[in-house]
Structure prediction request, 524 residues.
Amino acid sequence: MESLTNRKVVVSDKPMTFMEKLYLPGILKGMLVTFRHILMRRKTIKYPEETREFAPIYRGMHVLKRDEQGRENCTACGLCAVACPAEAITMTSEERTNADKHLYREEKYASMYEINMLRCIFCGLCEEACPKEAIFLTDRLVPTQFERGEFIYGKDKLVEPVDHRIDITKRQFTGKRTTL
Amino acid sequence: METFFWIDKLVLVVLLFLISLGIAAYQTYFERKLAGWIQDRVGPDRAGPFGILQPIADGVKMFMKEDFTPANADKWLFILGPGIAMFTSLITSAIIPWGTDLQLFGRSISLQVAEINIGILFAFGIISIGVYGIMIGGWASNNKYSLFGAIRASSQMISYELAMGISAITIIMISGSLDLRAIVESQHGMNWNIFYQPVAFLVFFICALAETNRAPFDLPECENELIGGYHTEYSSMKLGLFLFAEYVAMFVSSAIMAILFFGGYNFPGMDYFTDSPNLLSILSVAVFFTKIFILIFVFMWIRWTIPRFRFDQLMHLGWKVLIPIALVNMLVTGFVVALYENWF
Prediction:
């Protein structure tokens, strides 16, 4: 059969020659190989101090976007929850009152929005499903925790702060609505 | 004079004790660093700058662990095992001449704790006692794996002690003395024994690897088949002593190899410093330690290059390869020495 790589080696059990039986040349050859590795540049990324560069479309921790005026984009339509193959998303919707007009973009909003990060498989289907460009995956990582409960992210962790916007302009599913 | 003699020796003993332990501790650090480098990793780098405090962290960890003695173990022998292993590793450093004499406080201070004229025999005697620690520890654990490790250690020790001794005999024949200092002095001026006895060095080095239970001869403690071998049941600082003893033994056997084959504290251009004996003394100690460190590096380099032997291969190498080579080498050396001294 035609081999797919050039790394194929035919195994043979021919008797060893005298030089091979001495072992020492082989051992010296091996030691040279390891010595070369001592001098090589190490490719380690020392994580807490330096982080690996992520691709712009890396699918990490979610963010719930606000619009230019700082109003939440999410209308609690539930399409993300329906699209989610891991059933990680849940939400409760509520009607916006006149007093909250500066907080929510449309008449309906999510009073509770939760993503279980232990269920989430970071497939990005919620991002794809969202008609309001409200939910996006970012290149941030979900930090480790000791308790399971701490992995259920509510709106406090998901909605971006008004004064600290999260840049998602490099992502795939952005339209005209999301300029921030 | 007599009291000064004892003070000198006491200071030297304490210094040697601390230096041996310190070097052994930093050998563990360097071993892990080197392992990392060879495997394209960084190695320990969290404790202090470049991980320089790692041995201290390891030591603290060892002390904090639960000191567990198995219910069916022989308690006294269980404690005695690591003690003997550590003791025998440390005691050998007493006979090693670390450098030329220091001139301090108007008297000459020898940098050798015990100047015994049969130094090399003493070293061999102590090294062979070293396996008792492993054997007693493995036996007292009352565990099949430990016993296997102990048996392997003792059979390996017996097999390789022979070839080691025979290859050392050639050195004794060349320098005509059993005294380590005399052996060092006979190699003055680049007359290193390695140039006359490369085969003996090779045999001696392989045997030294086996005697210190270093890879590729670490069968007594192979973690895959014997789960640690003789120290399976050990924990806390008792385990620490066993592991430490291995590194001290590595340090001391590197020192002995440096003495027997690499001229000890001799270095080229030594005669220029005869006017300032103190400078010469310090330089000679530095040179000696450099040689030791290079040998230790080779020990570690080999460990992270070669896989472990199978036990029958180990026995085959010891009895059927190394001993015949050492014997032939000894006979040839004896013949040449006899010719040289005009015995015929």
Remarks:
- The domain at 62-158 of chain A is CATH 3.30.70.3270 (Alpha-Beta Plaits).
- Chain A has a mean pLDDT of 86.
